[in-house]
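Researcher: Structure for this, please.
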Amino acid sequence: DQLVQSGAELRNPGASVKVSCETSGYTFTSYYIDWVRQAPGQGLEWVGRIHPEDGETKHAQPFQGRVTFTADTSTSTAYVELTSLRPEDSAVYYCARISRSDEYDYWGQGTQVTVSS
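Model: Predicted structure, token format:
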């Protein structure tokens, strides 16, 4: 089982970014995918999640109106898109699979998103 994320992104403030998480080795529609981020010197911050089977999503309140989660079942790929980027959105973004026991069992390698003018 594997999660492979897209490469680093550099954006100006106010722009948008879309990060992908391509999965393989398991049934994509059977597990939730979470997105978390880690800013320099900070702990992990939960961004939100998607269930690829029905597209059900949840997000953390601070991202209200700025985040969208999608899942392409034809390519077993999950996406997170963040709009109206601010410098404080600069972080490493991770996708992670939630296991049957409600724990993260597989992680993507992380995608550095840098927001700077």
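Researcher: Any notable elements?
Model: The longest strand covers residues 17-24. The chain is about 0% helix and 55% strand.
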